[in-house]
Amino acid sequence: MPHPLPRTTPAPSAARTLAGLRRLPGARGPTLGAVADHLSDRAIPLLLLFLGLAAFVPTPGLPVGMITGSACAVVAFAALIRPGESRPALPGWLSRKPLPRRVLHGVLRRAVPLLRWLERRLRPRLSGLALGAGLGLAYGMVVVHAALVALPIPFGNTLPALAIILIALGILARDGLMVLVGHGVGLAWIAILAGVGRWLAGALAGEPAATFGQ
């Protein structure tokens, strides 16, 4: 009698997995190392997703952009230099960094509904953009976007953080179209910054005819 083929259990949704971070122990909140261990073999994209959400969701009174941007850059760079690893090789100082529970609960409360909405639109397509060389390019772009998140620009977190969120979701679902949209959002922000910088340079140089976008 032939044995039935084993059923493959689909991976839990990113929203459900991240919501489980609330249960992690820690008097001051779980450390990033504990979070990475909890996220298991999907730790790199899920950690990038959470950090992107933390930068995207407003958290008054805390320099979240600088912290999460720096952490995102380290995680993505670690993935670049150690391709094929399922968990990021975090430096000790970052692995021991606690996530304050107020920040953790605030981010999850605001971000999980958005995450569920985005996940309903994911499906495997254009997978080459989320695998192999495409994956390396995606992590390289995350490093760039994370550096922009860390810059002290008023309201400057939103678009690069959204780019990180979309790229991470695309990697998780092998959805190259979502990765591509994330690249587009990030490049749009870079173009905006370049345009503003050019306009400011012209204004400071005393060019009255300089107009934004020319």
UniProtKB/TrEMBL annotation:
InterPro entries: ExoD. Signal peptide: none annotated. The chain crosses the membrane at residues 47-80, 126-148, 154-173, 180-201. It holds the Pfam family ExoD. Keywords: Membrane, Transmembrane, Transmembrane helix. This is Exopolysaccharide synthesis, ExoD. It comes from Rhodospirillum rubrum (strain ATCC 11170 / ATH 1.1.1 / DSM 467 / LMG 4362 / NCIMB 8255 / S1). The lineage of its organism: Bacteria, Pseudomonadati, Pseudomonadota, Alphaproteobacteria, Rhodospirillales.
